[in-house]
């Protein structure tokens, strides 16, 4: 009879927690993003470089199923600061597109019937978003928009990539024509299927077999952000 140590179970828990692959890989999305960025300047009125910082709150998500005799209960990505940058083109007055990257170094855990297993996690997003601005005066604008792209997380067990979506609302303060500040709130969600479902699956013969765990779970990362914005009128 073979007995497994607690460390063995911890490694198994994280190594078997795999995100189901998606058809659009991160490389394909990067190519599409590059194409849009290259095409945009021909009609761009303003180019902006946005340097972001902010805070993302913890999100807990339920797990279900069993693997090698223990039950999966809950997972979480903990709260922490996030950092990133964006390249934005205002191609028409108050209409813009932005390529945005965000990195969040943090920790996470999986709760099973054998206990809670923790690990370092880095959550990354590469997104393409459309933005609409609503000027209140020449120094203050409201803005909002939706984002689509790729989200990937890396931990001791490796990394995996998912299609992701997001949304933003905020204010842009422009004390001068070339320098401004953005303040806002956002949500980012890696998804598969409806309702923001995130598929986590494992099995001895692959995710399609019955031997292992298989569950849908929702991850929604809410947070606040600020950005220092540099504008370059064309």
Kindly describe this structure.
The protein has 234 residues and is mainly beta. It has one domain (6-233): Beta Barrel (Porin). Helix content is 10%, strand content 65%. It contains two helices and 14 strands. The chain has helices spanning 6-15, 26-39, and strands at 18-19, 46-56, 59-62, 66-67, 70-77, 80-92, 95-112, 115-135, 140-155, 158-173, 179-191, 197-203, 212-218, 221-233. The strands form two sheets. Strands 2-6-7-8-9-10-11-14 form an eight-stranded antiparallel β-barrel. It has a three-stranded antiparallel β-sheet with strand order 1-12-13, with no helix packed on it. Strand 10 (158-173) and strand 11 form a beta hairpin. It starts with 5 loop residues before the first helix and ends with a strand.
Task: List the defining traits of the structure above.
Porin; 65% strand; 234 residues; eight-stranded antiparallel barrel; mainly beta; three-stranded antiparallel β-sheet; 14 strands; single chain
Blueprint (SSEs and pairs):
Layout: H1 6-15, E1 18-19, H2 26-39, E2 46-56, E3 59-62, E4 66-67, E5 70-77, E6 80-92, E7 95-112, E8 115-135, E9 140-155, E10 158-173, E11 179-191, E12 197-203, E13 212-218, E14 221-233
Antiparallel strand pairs: 1-12, 2-6, 2-14, 3-5, 4-5, 5-7, 6-7, 7-8, 8-9, 9-10, 10-11, 11-14, 12-13
How is this structure best summarized?
The protein has 234 residues and is mostly beta strands.
What percent of residues are in strands? over 45%
Shape: elongated
Q: What count of helical segments does DSSP give?
A: 2
Computed structural class: mainly beta
**How many separate structural domains?**
1
* CATH level 1 class label: Mainly Beta
What are the secondary-structure elements, in order, as H or E? HEHEEEEEEEEEEEEE
CATH architecture term: Beta Barrel
**Chain-averaged pLDDT:** 77
CATH fold-type name? Porin
> Within the largest sheet, what's the order of strands?
2-6-7-8-9-10-11-14
Distance between the termini: 72 Å
Percent range of helical residues: 10-25%
């Amino acid at each position: 009879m073979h007995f497994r140590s607690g460390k063995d179970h911890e490694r198994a828990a994280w190594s078997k927690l795999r995100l189901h692959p998606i058809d659009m890989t991160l490389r394909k999305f990067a190519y599409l993003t590059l194409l849009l960025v290259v095409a945009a300047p021909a009609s761009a009125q303003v180019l902006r470089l946005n340097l972001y910082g902010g805070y993302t709150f913890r999100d807990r998500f339920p797990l279900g199923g069993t693997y090698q005799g223990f039950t999966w209960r809950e997972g979480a990505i903990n709260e922490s600061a996030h950092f990133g940058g964006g390249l934005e083109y205002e191609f028409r007055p108050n209409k813009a597109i932005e390529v945005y990257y965000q990195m969040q170094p943090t920790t996470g855990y999986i709760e099973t019937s054998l206990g809670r297993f923790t690990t370092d996690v880095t959550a990354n997003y590469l997104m393409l978003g459309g933005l609409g601005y609503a000027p209140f005066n020449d120094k203050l604008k409201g803005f909002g928009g939706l984002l689509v792209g790729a989200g990937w997380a890396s931990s001791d067990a490796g990394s995996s990539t998912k299609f992701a979506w997001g949304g933003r609302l905020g204010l842009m303060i422009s004390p001068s024509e070339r320098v401004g500040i953005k303040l806002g709130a956002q949500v980012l969600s890696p998804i598969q299927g409806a309702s923001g479902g995130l598929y986590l699956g494992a099995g001895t013969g692959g995710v399609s077999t019955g031997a292992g765990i298989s569950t849908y779970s929702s991850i929604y990362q809410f947070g606040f952000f600020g950005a220092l914005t540099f504008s370059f009128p064309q």
